[in-house]
């Protein structure tokens, strides 16, 4: 009798061009928002206050962009990364229409690249994943690559195909929310006096605050996104692995760093794009996360005098302050303290 459970896909199960329609559409509720706030403590006024959001053209307080990202990502795990060794990186991500409480999100992925590793035990799978709301409107479209175990070491290696992914999202691809008007943006209520005009390319910002990763919070967060990857939950399996303990979901670090970044980037209320991202080192319960940012570039938006875009590198580090902006050593290798290198573009109001 055929097994009725889902063992997940192994590297040899993926085929170039394969489409994966992921199960379990998810209606995002105000309860999800409350739990997300309890887990990370984000303080961006647009997502915190319906009245503030409506005053600048949103229908209501939009869902935090990374909560949307995690919900879309979580749908992909049973089909893409249930048997993953590690999620490796992101590129070419664009956020679409705002998501509000009550919207239902579903996800479809397509395999865009395959590369078996030299050890013959694992391979890298590249996928493009698109989340859409109940109206079929895109809410986030991104590429990621993940290292996945092989089930049979004798399975033949596929032809190597590595997709040509952009190093950064073209500003022409940015999706500015319809009706957005920041001419009356209240920086006092937003909690930051710093506008787009006040940041300089090359400027680095120490976000100062630290937050310790807790096992219970990580478990709750990863279940919130319905992310079922074994490396985050199964200690019996982890005992056989390289670290002997469960890994913190990389997206958990991402959301924590983004929340910490409020202290210095309090008006960067919306993420427009994910240019690139790397989980440089694993994180575990008990690590304390600090963060710093670097302004990589700034963009004027056509026809807009009220708002601009800013490309920012957000770096999360563990168990040390970030005042000296750790990133790579002289050989170009990530510092052992660096957990996340997240290159993203944010929307930020211009000075009136």
Radius of gyration: 20 Å
**Number of extended strands:** 12
Overall outline: globular
Contiguous low-pLDDT stretches (5 residues minimum) are: none
- Amount of beta strand: 25-35%
Task: Give the helix tally.
Answer: 10
| Number of structural domains | 2
Q: Which homologous superfamily in CATH is the superfamily of the largest domain? A: Hotdog Thioesterase
N- to C-terminal distance: 69 Å
CATH class value of the largest domain:
Alpha Beta
Largest sheet: 12 strands, antiparallel
Q: Structural class per helix/strand content?
A: alpha+beta
Query: What is the second-level CATH architecture of the largest domain?
Result: Roll
Q: Helix content range of the residues, please? A: 10-25%
**Annotated CATH topology of the largest domain:** Thiol Ester Dehydrase, Chain A
Query: What's the order of the H and E elements?
Result: EEHHHHEEEEHEEHHHHHEEEE
